[in-house]
């Protein structure tokens, strides 16, 4: 069998749980869709403290070229934040949990579903941070994240306060997204899954087999649509429901990405 046509199959190793193993993906037929925090990058005490390992930057750039541009970052972060983290590199991306999209490195970012959140709502939700100095507000304009990694005991109080505001505004088109030590309030009507579906309708993603890797609750919307798209999904940390396999940690995802390039080189030589 041509190595280039081999599919990733679950393979148990000590470090990678049942991730795709060391077998290669047919990169010219695949679309690599990669979550950022907790998947590509190790989690950090605050959003601005994440670090992109130089080897990861190299792998992503080379994979972008090897997939003819069909590699995208799929994140809850805004596109401007994604670009700041990965600067000077630029990648196709779905940002803000599906609120924004950039199909190629040459195209403009498009705010597909990002109506600005009502300023009064932003102000009310942001005021919840006054509960504790350790609560960090991340205002994305179209959504607001309340981070409590530095004040984990405030989780219940935060959700309670958010519920109280929502009860006051039962018709507001907003939803609450729980994440890792974060409670995010965003417009309803879009998710990472709607973002990925839109992205996959465009060249160079169109017609390829999506391969999604994610770790968080919000990534479950994408895990759920992969079978219908004839795609593959892998979770990080825990084994999420319906995935094809999982990695132990972001370092294992990074090692797998590097190995994809090595495997292709081996076939080419
Ligand atoms: O969809 P992702 O790319 O996984 O982004 C999810 C959220 O990631 C960021 O917050 C998380 O990572 C921080 C840095 O490691 C960490 O301090 C925080 O506790 C995590 O929740 C980001 O700030 C959010 O906007 C994203 O929605």
Automatic annotation (TrEMBL):
<dbReference type="InterPro" id="IPR044651">
    <property type="entry name" value="OTSB-like"/>
</dbReference>
<dbReference type="GO" id="GO:0046872">
    <property type="term" value="F:metal ion binding"/>
</dbReference>
<keyword id="KW-0378">Hydrolase</keyword>
<comment type="similarity">
    <text>Belongs to the trehalose phosphatase family.</text>
</comment>
<keyword id="KW-0460">Magnesium</keyword>
<comment type="pathway">
    <text>Glycan biosynthesis; trehalose biosynthesis.</text>
</comment>
<comment type="function">
    <text>Removes the phosphate from trehalose 6-phosphate to produce free trehalose.</text>
</comment>
<feature type="region of interest" description="Disordered">
    <location>
        <begin position="1"/>
        <end position="21"/>
    </location>
</feature>
<dbReference type="InterPro" id="IPR036412">
    <property type="entry name" value="HAD-like_sf"/>
</dbReference>
<keyword id="KW-0479">Metal-binding</keyword>
<dbReference type="InterPro" id="IPR023214">
    <property type="entry name" value="HAD_sf"/>
</dbReference>
<protein>
    <recommendedName>
        <fullName>Trehalose 6-phosphate phosphatase</fullName>
        <ecNumber>3.1.3.12</ecNumber>
    </recommendedName>
</protein>
<dbReference type="InterPro" id="IPR006379">
    <property type="entry name" value="HAD-SF_hydro_IIB"/>
</dbReference>
<dbReference type="GO" id="GO:0004805">
    <property type="term" value="F:trehalose-phosphatase activity"/>
</dbReference>
<dbReference type="GO" id="GO:0005992">
    <property type="term" value="P:trehalose biosynthetic process"/>
</dbReference>
<dbReference type="Pfam" id="PF02358">
    <property type="entry name" value="Trehalose_PPase"/>
</dbReference>
<dbReference type="InterPro" id="IPR003337">
    <property type="entry name" value="Trehalose_PPase"/>
</dbReference>
């Amino acid at each position: 069998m041509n190595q280039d046509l081999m599919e990733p199959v679950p393979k148990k190793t000590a470090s990678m749980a049942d991730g795709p193993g060391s077998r290669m993906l047919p990169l010219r037929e695949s679309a690599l869709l990669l979550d950022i925090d907790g998947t590509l990058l190790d989690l950090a005490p605050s959003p601005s403290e994440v670090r992109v390992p130089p080897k990861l930057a190299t792998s992503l750039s080379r994979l972008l070229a090897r997939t003819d541009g069909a590699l995208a970052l799929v994140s809850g972060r805004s596109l401007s934040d994604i670009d700041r983290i990965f600067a000077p590199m630029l990648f196709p991306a779905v940002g803000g949990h599906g609120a924004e999209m950039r199909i190629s490195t040459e195209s403009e970012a498009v705010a597909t579903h990002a109506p600005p959140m009502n300023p009064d709502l932003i102000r009310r939700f942001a005021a919840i941070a006054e509960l504790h100095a350790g609560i960090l507000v991340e205002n994305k304009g179209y959504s607001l994240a309340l981070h409590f990694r530095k004040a984990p005991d405030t989780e219940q109080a935060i959700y309670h306060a958010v519920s109280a505001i929502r009860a006051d505004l039962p018709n507001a088109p907003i939803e609450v997204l729980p994440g890792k030590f974060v409670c995010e309030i965003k417009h309803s009507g879009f998710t990472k899954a709607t973002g990925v579906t839109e992205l996959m309708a465009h060249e160079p993603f169109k017609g390829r087999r999506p391969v999604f890797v994610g770790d968080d609750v919000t990534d479950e919307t994408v895990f759920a649509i992969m079978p219908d798209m004839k795609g593959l999904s892998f979770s990080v940390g825990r084994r999420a429901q319906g995935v094809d396999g999982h990695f132990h940690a972001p370092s294992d995802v990074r090692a797998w990405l590097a190995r994809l390039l090595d495997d292709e080189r081996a076939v080419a030589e």
